[in-house]
Specification:
Layout: H1 3-25, E1 31-36, H2 39-42, H3 55-66, E2 73-75, H4 77-86, H5 101-118, E3 130-139, H6 142-146, E4 154-162, E5 167-172, E6 194-199, E7 203-211, H7 219-225, E8 226-233, H8 241-251, E9 255-261, E10 277-279, E11 285-290, E12 297-299, E13 301-305, E14 308-311, E15 317-326, E16 333-341, E17 348-356, E18 367-372, E19 375-380, H9 385-389, E20 393-401, E21 407-418
Length: 420
């Protein structure tokens, strides 16, 4: 593999974990990504003898293997191969690249087992919840359409009925809660968020479901499981992390689930990290370490009274050792009190550096920039891939860029994780 491919594999895994932490930091259960296998990964014995494994598929396999131990990644290759051996009918259409309703059912069960290991209280459909009614004829799928043969080829659909009575209302999602009964809603491949409200669902939960066309056959099972779903094609939001963050802020999901197919899972926008968030409210978190103020090192700052410092030059910063080593992957919240006296501006540009024990010293690579105002602040560092990679942070440095204060304080510096 090339170095860019290795970096992309690492970047996608880091970004998924960062979004998982971000969603937990905002009160949710996290992000779980389910990847359905390509049809030829399940039914490889039906490939012609001249078919060879393409290079992109090798990259996807390496990517999935690298995430095998990560509970936020749900790889369905093994569960679907097992399902093929026991299922009464085919799991994928013959004339289409997608799984059928039976394949989606087995995928749903594997997903429920994976998420259930972390959240056992969530209720899921079971084999007793559905009735497989047999096969019926249907029109040919996308492969026959590619060949302009859809009018001449037919396929088989496996009928599955959910025994509970589910009534679903669909409408466009609006952050203000308004509904428009006559508004056009694209259900199959929604490029704008679609709200699905289910009566008699198993869980009274709000779930943000980012999906592709493999989600079509999954829809009945998801609607029966969660009372409120907002679903949208992942391509419409992942390309712009701010759009994904905006949707999370507006919908406030209990859980985010992303479903895609193997061939779509190794796309660069999956490596997009969350945007950096600085909150001015007092957000409580479980502190694991704090700044040791009496051991701080000052640069172009002079101590006036306790932790009140006077700016004496154009590059003021303070280096602060931490009371204990911090794992950046687990502990993503930085809190501190900031005050600025005799300020020329209400907003102030800060650059935060951190020193990991594996590195010789502070570096530009291990830093983030953000703007702050006075008060108690919480910075969500899950947006930084470098922070997530830093497993032994022993000190931090706060630089005041283009100093707009004559006197300032940095107090009550602490690092930790969100309170569950």
């Amino acid at each position: 593999m090339s170095e860019p491919d290795v970096d992309l594999i690492s970047g996608i895994h880091l970004a998924r974990q960062a979004w998982h932490v971000r969603i937990k930091n905002q009160g949710g259960l996290g992000l779980y990504v389910m990847i359905a296998p390509n049809k030829h990964s399940v039914y490889s014995e039906n490939l012609p003898g001249w078919a060879v494994v393409a290079e992109p598929r090798k990259m996807v396999s390496a990517f999935l293997e690298a995430g095998r131990s990560d509970s936020t990644l749900i790889d369905l290759r093994e569960p679907m191969l097992k399902a093929k051996a026991e299922a009464p009918y085919n799991l994928y259409y013959k004339t289409d690249t997608h799984w059928n309703r039976l394949g989606a059912w087995y995928g749903y069960k594997a997903m429920s087992e994976a998420i259930g290991r972390s959240h056992p209280w969530i209720k899921w459909l079971t084999d007793e919840s559905v009735v497989i009614t047999g096969e019926v004829e249907r029109a040919g799928g996308d492969l026959s359409n590619f060949l302009r043969l859809r009018d001449y080829l037919t396929d088989r659909e496996v009928g599955i009925e959910i025994t509970q009575d589910i009534k679903v209302h669909r409408s466009a999602f609006h952050a203000d809660g308004q509904r428009s009964e006559n508004e056009s809603v694209n259900i199959d491949s929604p490029q704008v968020p679609v709200l699905m409200e289910s009566k008699n669902a198993l869980n009274n939960m709000k779930v943000l479901w980012l999906r592709d066309s493999f989600g079509d056959a999954l829809s009945p099972y998801m609607e029966a499981t969660f009372s409120t779903l907002v679903r949208q094609h992942f391509g419409a939001v992942l390309g712009e992390p701010a759009a994904f963050q905006k949707l999370i802020n507006e919908f406030k999901p209990d859980l985010v689930i992303m479903t895609t197919v193997e061939r779509q899972s190794f796309v660069p926008f999956f490596a997009n990290m969350p945007p950096l968030i600085v909150r001015s409210e007092d957000k409580a978190f479980a502190q694991v370490s704090h700044g040791v103020a009496d051991k701080a090192v000052l640069h172009q700052l002079s101590s006036v009274d306790g932790e009140l410092f006077e700016v004496t030059g154009g590059d003021p910063f303070i280096e602060i050792p931490l009371s204990s080593i911090v794992d950046g992957q687990k502990n993503t919240l930085l809190g501190f009190d900031f005050n600025c006296e005799e300020a020329s501006s209400p907003n102030h540009s800060i650059q935060l550096f951190w020193h990991d024990r594996s590195k010789p010293w502070f570096s530009e690579e291990d830093s983030v920039r953000f703007d702050i105002s006075t008060g108690h602040l919480t910075v969500d560092l899950s947006a930084s891939a470098s922070w997530s990679k830093s497993r032994e942070v022993q000190s931090i440095r706060l630089d005041l860029n283009s100093p707009s204060c004559k006197k300032l304080t940095f107090e009550n510096i602490s690092l930790g994780e969100v309170l569950n």
